[in-house]
Design a protein that fits this description.
The structure holds two protein chains of two kinds.
Chain A (H helix, E strand, L loop, with lengths): L4 E8 L6 H4 L7 E8 L7 H9 L4 E6 L10 H18 L7 E5 L5 H18 L35
Parallel strand pairs in A: 1-2, 1-3, 3-4
Chain B lengths: L1 E5 L2 H8 L4 E7 L2 H4 L5 H17 L5 E7 L5 H4 L3 H5 L3 E4 L3 H10 L4 E4 L1 E11 L2 E6 L15 H4 L26 H12 L33
Parallel strand pairs in B: 2-3, 2-4, 4-5
Antiparallel strand pairs in B: 1-6, 6-7
The chains are: A alpha/beta, B alpha/beta.
Chain lengths: ~160, ~220
């Protein structure tokens, strides 16, 4: 099946050891490329922008939960940088929703799967189509409610913004 | 150091989009330290501009180069080839650097990518504060190392205005009252008495108010 969208995932190796762990959870419509980092502090503005330049339709950054970074501030720095790049993307008319950020409990494949489904749903919104996610509303920065067979006890600490 | 802030991206975009070949020229000194115009910022800006221009179906070939300092001709000269093969130069240096590049390459279009703001320091991570106005007649010895010309909103030289509240300036409550700081500093040093000496009105001829200034070191002129 032809992949309709390309996604780059920058992930801390503490969340997942390698992309091989979460790739099987990727929806068929997504072509996923993982970029592992020893710490999420290695996320730099230019890496995220270069991913878009290289053709990614969306980029997502997966980091440890706040307070749990083994290098103390790495995930805090990563969040700030993602926020900065989102603002730049919005300023140039390049939908900031294409860039997302999530704190994940290490190894939480269920949440990773939900995130990937959510990103596919976001494409439907960005591309102008109807959302496939029930109960969702997209006013500005509202959180995206994700229907999951695993119930609502998920480690996702942030939202699609 | 000189502190500057990169111009808003849309302003930069408007300046550069008429040109087919653009050089983004960074500076590796002051503006690198304040994250406005160093090598990293050049790379990031080039990427943002490419993405932005792509959304508008405009093609601009962007070249990236950073020199050590744009305020010294020896370093600017390194950019000669790159300048000559581009239609326009977007300089991320401070205003002095932009003008130095423009002077060196008078036939080239040199555009400013940074708003130069002040002479300051890195007070703490991510925070740059203005410390010096370049008045040309430094009296920091009198004021315990805290400059009322720069840091007092009213530029008072003989004590506080009396309007401060909890150590904050009456004019701008986000700012520390400079005189509060001066008095605290001199008290800690046991030198508060020196404030009894009258400081006469400032002579501004030595500052920019007296027109653009020059400094000549004869011992360096051959």
């Amino acid at each position: 099946m032809k992949k309709s969208h390309k996604l780059s995932i920058f992930f801390c190796t503490r969340t997942f050891e390698s992309e091989a762990v979460f790739l099987p959870k990727a929806p068929n419509s997504l072509e996923v490329r993982g970029v592992s980092m020893a710490c999420s502090s290695m996320v730099k503005d230019i890496f995220l922008l270069k991913a878009f330049e290289a053709g990614a339709d969306a980029v997502t950054v997966w980091v440890c939960p706040e307070g749990k970074c083994r290098h103390v501030e790495g995930n805090l720095r990563a969040r700030k940088r993602v926020e900065r790049v989102k603002a730049l993307l919005e300023a140039i008319g390049f939908n900031g929703r294409r860039l997302t950020f999530f704190n994940l409990i290490p190894g939480d494949l269920a949440s990773a799967s939900d995130i990937l489904e959510g990103i596919v749903a976001t494409f439907n919104i960005i591309d102008g189509g109807p959302s496939k996610v029930s109960g969702c509303c997209f006013p500005g920065n509202a959180a995206l409610k994700i229907q999951s067979p695993f119930g609502s006890n998920h480690s996702i600490q942030t939202d699609f913004r | 150091m000189i502190v500057g802030e990169q111009k808003p991206i849309m302003e930069i975009l408007q300046m550069v989009s008429p040109h087919k070949k653009l050089l983004i020229l960074g500076c590796g000194t002051c503006v690198k330290t304040c994250f406005a115009g160093g090598e990293d910022e050049v790379t990031t800006l080039a990427s943002v501009l490419r993405l932005a221009l792509k959304t508008k179906d405009i093609f601009v070939q962007i070249e990236e180069l950073t020199v050590e300092r744009q305020c010294e001709d020896a370093f600017i000269a390194e950019a000669a080839d790159a300048v000559s093969r581009n239609e326009a130069v977007l300089s991320l240096a401070c205003g002095a650097g932009v003008q130095a590049v423009a002077r060196r390459f008078p036939r080239s279009l040199v555009l400013p990518g940074v708003n130069t703001t002040f002479l300051g320091v890195l007070e703490r991570r991510g925070l740059f504060t203005e410390e010096c106005s370049g008045c040309g007649d430094c009296q920091l010895a009198v004021f315990g190392g805290i400059c009322p010309v720069t840091r007092c909103a009213k530029k008072l030289l003989n004590g506080p205005c009396g309007g401060s509240r909890n150590g904050k300036c009456e004019v701008n409550a986000d700012t520390d009252c400079a005189w509060h700081l001066i008095i605290e500093r001199l008290s800690a040093q046991g030198r508060l008495n020196q404030l009894r000496a009258y400081v006469p009105p400032k002579q501004w001829q030595a500052s920019l108010s007296g027109g653009p200034r020059k400094l000549i070191r004869e011992d360096h002129v051959i």
